[in-house]
Amino acid sequence: MIAVVVVRAGQLPAGGAEAVAECAGRALLAGSGLAEAAAQLTGIATELTLVELGDFQPAAWAHGLAPLLAHEPAVLLPASPDGRDLAPRLAGLLHRPLYAGATAVGPQRIELARNGGRELHTATPGPEFVATLQPGVRGVEAHPHLPAATVGAVTVHLYPEARDPLVLDVQPPDPATIDLAEAPRIVGGGAGLDGPQRITQLAQLGAALGASMGATRVITDRGWVPHERQIGTTGVVVDPQLYIAFGVSGAVQHTSGLGDPAHIISVNTDQYCPMMQLADLAIVADANATLDALLDLLAENAS
Questions:
Q1: Domain boundaries, the chain
Q2: By the 8 A CB rule, do 258 and 231 touch?
Q3: 218 falls in which pLDDT band (50, 70, 90)?
Q4: What 3-state class would DSSP assign to 98?
Q5: Which among 154, 132, 181, 146 is positioned nearest to 24, based on CA atoms?
Q6: Which of the residues 11, 105, 125, 302 has an alpha carbon 20 to 30 A from that of 140?
Q7: What is the pTM of this model?
Q8: Digit-coded pLDDT (tens) for 11-58
Q9: Ramachandran region of residue 250, left (φ > 0), alpha (ψ -120 to 50) or beta?
Q10: Which CATH architecture has domain 180-302?
């Protein structure tokens, strides 16, 4: 198998390193700033092919990359926004099935998350296929003693006839709309919140902190937030640098989907709940009152 990873200005996408690890270190990096991205795969990659292509043009890239990948039986992309855009185009040009949203990929077995992550389906692929791997589900650990990867550069010609949209501007990530799997900061709400108005407060606090808003399954089951904002093994698997939990007890289905945050702050009246035990800073207080107080402080500082 080989991983195809779209790189923007030297930045690996969410799940990029995981896709490379799933392919035993074999990867094709396409985009810009590839040397910088390759350095981020030290201890993970064993064989890298670098294809400098500049700005992302999925239709043109697919036509250029397909001939390079025709001899590869299995092609794997991270299910990042760019990966989800490029994968079906490659599958179409290579005349192969696409297995989207996989949690594990192998030559003889693919596990697929379906029905909003509530079901896990197993597929037996044919000899050739394209798949996308959900970020955060596999995890990856660099091996410091792994030999340096062999690196080669390839030039491809893009097809000017390919129909790509005209990109007028690339906006910086918006915490309110960014995929939770890619959010570096998250404020989360759980069963301890006393009403749907608290979700609006969480979003306001998140905007002030440059953080995305997420929730537990209890909150999504109440209909207060859409399923794509649910954190956990039955929702979105995340890996933020900072996670602030308001009224989250810390059920295993939730904490198993948290990844390995560098910092966790938990606000809960139950000092012995699992989320408080995981926290770097545990605040024994009512989550609703704490939200009110924080927003009052923000309003005072803004005036």
A1: 2-153, 180-302
A2: yes
A3: very high
A4: strand
A5: 146
A6: 125
A7: 0.75
A8: 999 889 999 999 999 999 999 999 999 999 999 999 999 999 988 999
A9: left
A10: 3-Layer(aba) Sandwich (3.40)
